[in-house]
Amino acid sequence: xxxxxxxxxxxxxxxxxxxxxxxxxxxxxxxxxxxxxxxxxxxxxxxxxxxxxxxxxxxxxxxxxxxxxxxxxxxxxxxxxxxxxxxxxxxxxxxxxxxxxxxxxxxxxxxxxxxxxxxxxxxxxxxxxxxxxxxxxxxxxxxxxxxxxxxxxxxxxxxxxxx
Length: 163
Prior knowledge:
- The protein is of the alpha+beta class.
- The protein is built from 4 helices and 5 strands; from the N terminus they run βαααββαββ.
- It has helices at 38-45, 54-67, 69-72, 112-130, and strands at 24-35, 83-91, 96-107, 138-148, 155-156.
- It has a 5-stranded antiparallel beta sheet with strand order 2-3-1-4-5.
C-alpha cells in the first residue's frame, strides 16, 4: 500500500490522480471543541457578544470554509460539495462549545478534509468573536468522527473515544 500518496517516487509533492475513479456517495463527520473561560461561557449563555450571534456566524464560517478547503490545504482536490451542516452548541457545564460538521457529496475523492476544515474555521470564528472578552480559550479535539464511501470504506471512532 502506498501510504504517502501525496509524494511521487522521488519524494516530490503531487496531487493524487483520481481520473480513473468513479464518483460514489461519500460523507464525513468531524467534531471539535472550544474550551471557554467562565466569563465567555456566561456571556454566550446570556445571548451573545456585542458582535452578534457567535454561533450563527461560526456556522456560516464553517460552511464557507468547507467550500474553500482545496484553496487552504495544498494537495486537496477541488470537489463539488452537495451538502454541509455545521452546528455549534454551548455545553454550559463543561464551559465549552461543541462544533460538529457533516459534509456529503457524490465524488471521486472523500470529504474528510472538508469536514475537518469546517470545524476548525468555525472554532477559530468562535475564538475571534470572543477574544475581546478573554483570550484564554483553547481549541481542542478536532477529529474525524465518521466517514463512509470511497476505497477505504467506513471509518468510525469507537464508542470509548467519543467526547
